[in-house]
Amino acid sequence: MSKAIKKPEQPKIYKVKQIIQEAQGFKTFRFQGKMELEAGQFIMFWIPGLDMKPFSVSSSDGEYFEITAMKIGDFTQAMFNLKVGDQVGIQGPYGRGFQISEKNNIVIMGGGCGIAPINLLVERAQAKNKNITFIGGCRNQAVFLKREKIAKLIKNCYFTTDDGSFGEKGFTTEILEKLIKKGQKIDQILACGPEIMLYKCAKIAVKNNIACQVSLERMMKCAIGICGQCVLDGSGIRVCKDGPVLSAEKALTSPEFGSYKRDERGRIVKA
Amino acid sequence: MSKQKIDSRVNFLGVEFPNPIVLSSGILGMTATSMEKVITSGAGGVTTKSTNISGRDGNPCPKVITYEAGMLNCYGLTNAGFLNEKNEIKELKQRRPENPVIISIFGFSLEEFEQIAKKLDQTQADLVEVNISCPNVKEETPKPFACLTGMPRQVVKLVKKNTKKPIIVKLSPNVTDIVAIAKEVEDAGADAISAINTLGPGMVINIEAKRPVLSVGSGGISGPAIRPLAVRMIYDVYQAVKIPLVGIGGVTTGRDALEMIMAGAELVGVGSGVYYQGIDIFAKINQEIRKWMQKNQVKSIAELVGAAHR
Ligand SMILES: Cc1cc2nc3c(=O)[nH]c(=O)nc-3n(C[C@H](O)[C@H](O)[C@H](O)COP(=O)(O)OP(=O)(O)OC[C@H]3O[C@@H](n4cnc5c(N)ncnc54)[C@H](O)[C@@H]3O)c2cc1C
Ligand SMILES: Cc1cc2nc3c(=O)[nH]c(=O)nc-3n(C[C@H](O)[C@H](O)[C@H](O)COP(=O)(O)O)c2cc1C
Ligand code: FES
Fold first, then answer.
1. DSSP letter string, B130-144
2. Cα B158 to the chain's mean position, in Å?
3. Which residues contact B32 (CB under 8 A, 6 or more apart)?
4. Cα(A71) to centroid(ligand 1), Å
């Protein structure tokens, strides 16, 4: 009969090595250490005495790794108050990340703070010599994360903003549809961003028979698949364990995808 | 040996469970879909996450930490409140009418227990589990009711008076004499007993951070480490009371479940095991039990209940 004991998991303590001011409202925290993971997997970020919350890894080169956070509430505010040398705990990585296709032509889509893990995905896809098209979208130029870096790295870049302050005015999914209409060869779409973008993306991909993976965010507490906090309605998928990256088909089996989420208590709130 | 027919059904307080393995409270029990998934993964029945009337936020994270032999949690009874729970159960019952649902309830005072007890008959739950043993809400109750003499009796009487549904009382291992409490709740009218809730609380310190990992310092211990304690407690309680038992604590394999059944449990609860064996643990345990029964020519679970006493 099966063996029960598992290796225990504890947050690993790191000193903040460097803090980089990114686009407006974003900071990147750099740590020294080897973080082996797939792009799209996440870690739990522990500020001792306060809380522990899920974040993606935005860069990892074997010697250093980075986490890029957007300030939206108490915890991210506390992250923004961190100084170089402060100690934090990092546990993970957890979940399943993006599985980059064996085929060549990949469209990578990032929106808002979803561009954080997309940055690592771009690093990984480039290392595999993929032919990458990047479509990034944000509210406006000031909050556009990593746009200069990505523009430098990738030849085929499309940028959109809601107000037209940078790139085209409009949405990333409109660009995606244009590319498909134009007949661009796309073997796979990989996306992370606001859920409405992911939902549209998944729909477009399924309609056009293109392989697609999307990275979802749900309230997470245990990150090890036991508490049920992150379970999707319909499918019963645990986003912390079976996700956060899901195939478009899998994501679409849940009626809550693109439409609602649950808060900490389990009450339904609009996505 | 010819294949014999094996009956893994359990009739518990008049409610038929397709097999003896039930999901314990607090694990994957927040929503109808989550519990449905557990049933699809092989559980005979499910217990909802403990609910009070108004709902609760619970503690900050880390709320779970694993160690070599088990895990600690300090969830602190997070829940969405009774109304939400009622709806989730309704939804689940529509989808899975054949699998019993146990609604787990708690209160921080006798008044709160009474309030929620009065509403229980509005739900489609088959059974009620009265959680008087959560060790993770120190602010509200320095000691769970299960650890205060006289309180278990009062809670049981109050809940019994206000619902027609059979009630299972969930006991704490954190007492000097669990048998005395078991007798007290039986005497007060409890229909069944489940045991054990988490042990402790215990503590894990992160030596680099030089502080406890769990947000509130300590948390209830579950998982393989507590199994021998849980088995012994079920064994002792079985000898002392006549009402049926749900054995909970550290079960991760069919062997463990059989141990619990032989100690005297009719149903076996599985919680932390989901971490150790994945969500398929329910099907795996059932398969292992059936295989064992086949090999040992046992036809029904009922034959095995309390076997270790004979
Ligand atoms: C897999 C995953 C990867 C993520 N990666 C990043 C990232 O790279 N960069 C980044 O800035 N943010 C990321 N987030 C979101 C990040 O966890 C939240 O922004 C953060 O928890 C907000 O906390 P707060 O106290 O500042 O805000 P709050 O005011 O507490 O919350 C604001 C919103 O953040 C979300 N949130 C809060 N707590 C949690 C939680 N425990 N789990 C999930 N979501 C929560 C909710 O949608 C909430 O409405 C990720 C989330 C997930 C699930
Ligand atoms: C994360 C977690 C949350 C729990 N929440 C509850 C709860 O809300 N109500 C309750 O009665 N027991 C709760 N428990 C206790 C379990 O139901 C069970 O009694 C205990 O964990 C021992 O069983 P196990 O070793 O199979 O996990 C919780 C346990 C864990 C691990
Ligand atoms: S966060 Fe607990 S199950 Fe996913």
1. EE----S-TTT-SS-
2. 21
3. A233, B88, B89, B91, B92, B95
4. 9
DSSP letter (8 states) at residue B302 = G
Enclosing H/E stretch for B56: none
Residues β-bridged to residue A269: A261
Q: CA distances (Å), B306 to each of B10, B231, B244, B263, in order?
A: 14, 11, 11, 5
How far apart are alpha carbons A142 and A162 in whole angstroms? 12
H/E element holding B94? helix B82-95
Chain A residues near residue B213 by CB distance under 8 angstroms: 10-11
- In the block, tokens 């406006």 appear at A140
pLDDT tens-place values along chain B, 310 residues long: 456 788 999 999 999 999 999 999 999 999 999 999 999 999 999 999 999 999 998 899 999 999 999 999 999 888 999 999 999 999 999 999 999 999 999 998 889 999 999 999 999 999 999 999 866 665 666 677 877 778 899 999 999 999 999 999 999 999 999 999 999 999 999 999 999 999 999 999 999 999 999 999 999 999 999 999 999 999 999 999 999 999 999 999 999 999 999 999 999 999 999 999 999 999 999 999 999 999 999 999 999 999 999 8
Report whether B80 contacts B52 (CB < 8 A). no
HEC assignment per residue over A8-54: CCCCEEEECCEEEECCCCEEEEEEECCCCCCCCCEEEEEECCCEEEE
Q: Do B31 and A231 touch (CB under 8 A)?
A: yes
For A170, the token pair is 């409009």
Q: Is B61 a catalytic residue?
A: no
β-partners of residue A107 are A133, A189
ipTM: 0.92
Give how far B294 is from chain A: nearest CA, Å. 16
Residue B254, H or E segment: helix B254-263
Q: How many CA atoms lie within 13 A of B75 on its CB side?
A: 26
* Tokens encoding A49: 């005495």
Q: What domains can be seen in chain A, in order of their start residue? A: 12-94 (2.40.30.10), 105-270 (3.40.50.80)
Q: How far apart are the first and last CA of chain A?
A: 43
Strand partners, A176: none
Positive or negative, the CA dihedral A62, A63, A68, A69 is positive
Instruction: Mutation target for A interface from B31, B72, B89, B252: give the one with most A CBs within 10 A.
Output: B31
Taking the domain B10-309, which CATH number applies? 3.20.20.70
Distance in Å from the first CA to the final CA of chain B: 26
Q: Give contacts of A234 with chain B, Cβ < 8 Å.
A: 33
